[in-house]
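@channel anyone free to eyeball this complex?
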Amino acid sequence: MKFIEFGSENRRVSDVVLGLMRIPQLETPQKVSELLHTALESGINMLDIADCYSKGRAEELLGETFALEPQLRDKFFLQSKCGIVKDPFYFFDFSKEHIIKAAEDSLRRLKTDHLDCLLLHRPDALMEPEEICEAFSLLKEQGKVLDFGVSNFNPAQMKLLQRGIDVKLACNQVQMSVCHTVMIDSGFNVNMDNDASVMHDGGILEHCSLQGTVVQAWSVMQHGFFKGVFIGDPHYLRLNSVLDRIAAEQGVTSTAVAIAWVLRVPGRMQAVIGTTRPERVKNSARASDVRLSRQQWYEIYLAAGNELP
Ligand SMILES: NC(=O)c1ccc[n+]([C@@H]2O[C@H](COP(=O)([O-])OP(=O)(O)OC[C@H]3O[C@@H](n4cnc5c(N)ncnc54)[C@H](OP(=O)(O)O)[C@@H]3O)[C@@H](O)[C@H]2O)c1
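replying in thread with the prediction:
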């Protein structure tokens, strides 16, 4: 497992992160505990969750797991997110009051006294950096949150927020997989008169590299917006055949190769995996030790149906 330095205290965190959005499917803290132990045995020491996952049930279940095994909490760097409201309807809220209350509610559900990192989940058009600064400062001062980051932000939004706060944003968590390459595609088509030249993200990867900000890729096994897993999907025969071949050459699973593809992108990359099966956690963690050659990386990109100019 490879580790990167993260946050204001340069904590060492694994470049494969265990995402817990789907743990309510596991139902019991005993099953979540098994998943967490497998993660630790595989070298993973960072967890990602959010207040809104299953309306708080994911955090609650993780809290029940920590209550069952109190020594587990401190073995992980624990990251949560806030800013998505689900009641009375779905919208985004980065007000000072909401951020503080959301963080405190997360701590209560998670049965812990601090979050190692708190992310703003999806950009709020009404975001006022000054009041976010007040919320972050208070949470940090009280020791409730050690570091802060964002998710699904473009570089302009990151710069706007960064200018108004006195902590350095630790990361931006964004969608990326072999089958969701939006942040890469336009870079191949600069100044071309075609659809692929349209930049949809504002240059997130380049901005984060310049700032030394960690990029956390979410849904590394999915195509589309939660449209399903591409591994074994007959619509992605060519991709699966290339992944299978490289996996056999490297002695890992095709899942690990697909994750290694994301981690091979320059910068400070992490992959947030979302499986609920211990065996898949083990196999996915091996991605960290696979370094794809340039040829393998491009072969996978093309096999996923992408084109180069
Ligand atoms: N910031 C954001 O806006 C945002 C959005 C979405 C997610 N996230 C974070 O990212 C994490 C990962 O997201 P995700 O769950 O969508 O990621 P994912 O790892 O792409 O998907 C996990 C799903 O794919 C299945 N799966 C994984 N490997 C498989 C394989 N080899 N063959 C067949 N099925 C496979 C899993 O089933 P099994 O459980 O049965 O293995 C699970 O249903 C979340 O937990 C969350 O922490 C963040």
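from a first look: The chain has one domain: 3-229+258-290.
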